[in-house]
Amino acid sequence: MALDAERVRVFVEVAHAGSIAAAAARMGFTPSALSQQLAKLEREVGVPLLERGRAGTRLTGPGQVLLEHGERVLGELRAAEEAVRAAAGAEPQRIAVGAFSTAARTLLPRALAALKEGRPGIRTSLVDIEPPEGYGLVAARELDLLVTHRYPGVSLPAVRGLRRGLLLRDPLRLVLPRGHRLATVPEIALADLGDEDWVSGAPGVPNRVCLESLGQLRVAYETRDYEVTLALVEAGLGVSLVPATMLAGRRAVVVRDLHGSAPVREVYAVHPPRPSAPVVDLLNRLRPTAP
Question: Which helix or strand (DSSP H or E) is residue 80 part of?
């Protein structure tokens, strides 16, 4: 028996949303209606696909397999719709972009504004997505473009039929409070910072993985937000490694290079294999903004 495409779409939406209630709100249905569709789909495949709980839903092993296939199926259906419209001479009217917070703050605004100026009829949207998430949304064509990153010591996810290209290399630079004892030293070795309190992400977060790969450093303050990181450093509470794209015009901290090979964050663009003309346009506008 062939799987019902609409039930697969419901399943993918629930998996992406993390709960039946959230997916129902996004799709304009009642939670009970979606639950019925999911129950029918599970009867069709003969195995449970979701574990339901108060905190939301979690995929089973078979559910994860179906999600990967379902994302590609939905992506192909949406690609077919776009191709038919393109054959009729109609250009895409929307671009949905996902990006991690630093890119959303520093790279995307000017590029999206320039795109809208060059293509006045297009609608654009941007959502915050922290790596490694977002690849499935591109596969399902819920996103037309994903801007993601990789820190040293962190593996890149499999692309599974998508295209991934390097946008820029973003060096991680050492930031110190203005009154720090090493503030006048041009290049600083990690050995000189052994007694310092560091500001970084929680265990497992990419920038924390990168920091831990450099050696035994004492993380006293944990945050994902580089604005919070810089505020803590400015207050004299610690030191940190911060991407260069976040440091333009920052005068309340001292910025230095680490002695030797400085770590670099790689920023990537992920998109379908045949991106639309507006996506190509946006990619071309993004690259010149890279420092």
Answer: helix 61-87
241, 127 Cβ separation under 8 angstroms: no
End-to-end alpha carbon distance in the chain: 53
Residue type for position 245: T
CA distance 196 to 181: 11
The two beta strands, 145-150 and 264-271, are antiparallel
What's the longest Cα–Cα distance across the chain? 72
Closest CA to 256 of 196, 176, 198: 176
d(CA 5, CA 195): 58
Tokens standing for 20?
A: 């039946």
- Quote the tokens at residue 199: 């500001």
CA separation for the pair 275, 183 (Å, rounded): 47
pLDDT digits (tens, 9 = 90+) for 92-133: 788 999 999 999 999 999 999 999 999 988 999 999 999 999
| pLDDT tens digits, one per residue of 233-291 | 999 999 999 999 999 888 889 999 888 777 999 999 999 998 988 999 999 999 855 44
- pLDDT at position 291 is 47
Short-list 22, 9, 26, CA closest to 70: 9
pTM: 0.84
Of the candidates 132, 138, 145, the one whose C-alpha atom is nearest the C-alpha of residue 104 is 145
